Amino acid sequence: MTTSANVYVRISQDRAGERAGVIRQREDCMRRAADRGWEVLAVHEDNDQSAKSGRRRPGFEAVLDDVQSGRVGVVIAWALDRLQRNRRDELRLYEACQAAGVTLSLVNGAELDFSTAAGRYVADNLGSIARLEVELKSDRQQSANKQAAHEGRRSGGRRPFGYDQDGMTIREREADAIRTAYRDLLSGVPLAQIAKTWNEVELHSGQARWAEGHKGEPSRWTGQTVRVVLSNPRYAGLRAYKGEIVAEAKWPPVVAQETWRAAVAHLSTRQAVPRKLARRLLSGLALCGVCGAPVWGGGNARQNVPNYRCSAAYGHFARMSEPVDEYVSAVILERLSRPDAAQLLTTTKRPDTAALHDEASTLRNRLESVALEFADGTLTASQIRAITERLRSRLAELEESLADAGRVDVLGPLVRATDVRAVWDGLSLEHRRAIIDTLATVTIHPPGRGVRTFDPATVRVRPKGEK
Ligand SMILES: [Zn+2]
């Protein structure tokens, strides 16, 4: 029985390669097959010069496929440097040939018979050299990425939304949309609504396409991809590495750090209200006074009275929502109307954000130098744990204060207003919800059996954070 073979030819980038090269490679390989009595099943070809092929080499992949599926017993190529373009591919080929016992026959080079012990020995050595190179390269790449991160530089990749391909130059149109989105988000506009707006004004990004897994289609934003964008520390001019912020970025920020922190805090704490439920002032914000479950809006204005009900499986109450909304709004407005509203409402005074930023960046530097001292052997493991914990907890405090400073924006229009009630009435439902969420925790109790009039004692409005 004759052995089946495939032939692999390739034009490489580095030689002024031309078609003639491929024809000669192919002739030599076919002659090799004829000399040995191998039957050639397929000739696979790659052209690295073609821009279309990108990084993938369909011919090489087809060779691997033939080997792995057992279709061929021999792979014929002109020379080793024609066969592989990089060490990673080389390793894949060795491993596939070894696993399938396939012979690799090079017209200008050795014949590696992976079905014999000697062939496997050679392959093992070639393979481990290739593996070492791949790993060294990846180590180098990683440390280069890490260094770039700690210097606040980016390390390549696709164009970030809001910036040019260089990642440094702001694209004003997109950046404007991002700024508005942060403001909207903090005023309670849902992510899906922001996505819809971005789609309507035809803002496209690689990010949206990537997140949806589409290829070649115009990218559509979704709530999820907008969330990815707004959570990205890049927009606050911060450089993250492996999920941690490690430096101030070299690129200009799109929004203030406190705005970004407030947005991240908002995104992580917000409880999603199921879409099908009626959106009322307090749905998903207020809690049941009996069990602590969120209170949802129910009832349809046409069929019955709009109400709030406890969302637990056997809800603890359902009661008219209008008097509750009216009462909670009144409490909130009363607080906002006081002369010292700005201070009262943010619990602490608006912090000096510049000082907070400075301290945070000092702490980050300190964390980094601690790691170095540990590497130097100056500190013991338990010392470093203690120091790191202390630094991290202070850093967390600072980040919280910065987020608080960002939240003040939501209240801005009201705190500065002379007629608070008029401004309040003019705000969107979402904005009013955001204000309540910022300022207060609302607890709704059952109205009491057979009670017809509204009793303010059954609704508690406490300043946020107070037990
Ligand atoms: Zn309940």
UniProtKB/TrEMBL annotation:
Residues 381-408 form a coiled coil. It comes from the Bacteria. Pfam families: Recombinase, Resolvase. Residues 4-152 form the Resolvase/invertase-type recombinase catalytic domain. Keywords: Coiled coil. Residues 160-273 form the Recombinase domain. Residues 138-165 are annotated as: Disordered. One of its GO terms (molecular function) is DNA strand exchange activity. Gene3D superfamilies: Putative Large Serine Recombinase, Chain B, Domain 2, Resolvase, N-terminal catalytic domain. PROSITE patterns: RECOMBINASE_DNA_BIND (PS51737), RECOMBINASES_3 (PS51736). The keyword Coiled coil applies. This is DNA invertase Pin-like site-specific DNA recombinase. It comes from Humibacillus xanthopallidus.
